[in-house]
Amino acid sequence: MEHTEQLTTETAQNRTPTPSRAQRRGARTHRWRRDSVELAAVFLSVTAADLVAKLVVHGPEGPVVLAASAVALLATALFHTWWSHRHQLHGPPAPDAPPPPRTAAGAGGGTGRGTGGASAEEPLKGPLHAFEETALWRVRTTVQDSPGSLARVCTAFAERQVNIVSMQSHPLPAGAVDEFFVRAPRSLGRTELAALVAAAGGHDIWTDPADAHDLVDVPTHVLALATRTALDAAELPIALRQLFGQCSIRQFPGAAERSAAGVDGHVMRLPVPSGDLIELTRPHLPFTPTEFARAQALVELDTLLGPRVPDVRARLTVPTGADVTVRRADAEDKEAALAMHRRCSPDTLRKRYHGPVRDADRYLNHLLDPRHGQTLAVEASDGRIVALGHLMWDDDSAEVAVLVEDAWQRRGLGLDLMRRMSALALEAGVETVYAVTQSSNTGLIATMRKLAAPLDYQVDEGTLVITAHLAEAAEELPVPWQTRPGR
Q: What are residue 140's DSSP bridge partners?
């Protein structure tokens, strides 16, 4: 109600007065006189043009008269331009010019709760950008869903020169969660920002530094993630992580009937029509029903479209001169992958799968499912698959693994696959990848070292875990589907 009264008052102040009957009659008289003057000017112009034409055609000084007329017209146009510019710069403002619009820091939008409280006629308490250096923050708080609750938070931001860049609201059964992207002075730290919101009535406050990439509005962001998911089934975990920030994502086969779907604080459970259950965990921030609806829409889109892999490929020339093709692989490549297994030696399979050789074939169903990650295949000119690379999402990291057929080893195929998978991980926002192998697998260790990325080593009972930090080697990594010669 208070917000409605404010809008009504401002509308009344800005409404243009209705002209009286005498003013309307005077306006009609002025319009008639102006039309008469313009008509007389048209007749005068036609007469002058006819006179000049006769002088040019029949007079002895026709060219001179024509040139003089052109000079006179040019001088008149220049004088008119100078006079108009001078009047615009130095003349007084028009008596009916509207006053310049006023702005206020911290104007929120998109909710039904009032943002009023300070009149539009009150002066601001200082310039909006009096400070030189600012920092972007993401602030999330729970407030009462009542008129004026959002206004108190916005007013608190404005008093400390915190500018609200964007804002969205998540309704709850009791209360509401408001999420802000703000630009604050660097002197205002995380603790002071949280205390500012708490003093304005907020609770369960969460703050985190943000960057320019976070400023995309939510509908645009969700549509972009839906597009990526529609093109590639392997993008669903990445889309969920980019939608909700850092969170753990796990998929449990056949668990949809045993667990209830929905939001339980920091845990979100999403059923899949196939019977699987996707579970998201975010310890630092509880989920909201609005976020559950967005995640469920992405999962339903992924299920509706079914397994899909984009048709991307690149040519690679190995040192022996043979040309091979690197492409994405899926479940339809299982028979070709099984044939490659039969051409590999037991030692090669043991180093790749870390277990009995007879179990190697059963891993392919999981590895070739695009919902668990991306699989790259190297295909020879005769159509045989001679190498496989697996990039499997694991929370905020990813596991990489490479298998190269014995007859094609030491030709750079493993390194090329490792570099392409690392580039794909960076493209998806994953900055660390790790490989699990045996400490005796010197080939994989050498391949990881050639990534030119800082490596961490962890050994546990003969199992070696090598973690590569890709951010520092981003410039050395290729475009994922770039055609280039092998090394």
A: 179, 206
C-alpha 156/C-alpha 202 separation (Å) is: 11
End-to-end CA distance of the chain: 72
Domains of the chain from N-terminus onward? 134-215 (3.30.70.260), 218-305 (no CATH), 313-485 (3.40.630.30)
- Element at 33 (helix H, strand E): helix 21-58
Residue 27 reports pLDDT greater than 60: no
User: Quick check: pTM over 0.85?
Assistant: no
Can you say whether residue 429 is alpha, beta or left, with left for phi > 0 and alpha for psi between -120 and 50 degrees? left
Query: Which two three-digit tokens encode residue 139?
Result: 């602030």
* C-beta separation of 349 from 360 below 8 A: yes
Local confidence band at 401 (pLDDT 50, 70, 90 cut-offs)? very high
- Res. 224: pLDDT tops 50: yes
Nearest to 326 by CA among 398, 414, 406, 407: 414
Distance CA(376)–CA(394), nearest Å, equals 18
Q: In 151-305, where do the E strands start and end?
A: 163-171, 176-185, 203-209, 248-252, 262-264, 267-271, 277-281
Structure confidence at residue 107 as a pLDDT band (50, 70, 90): very low
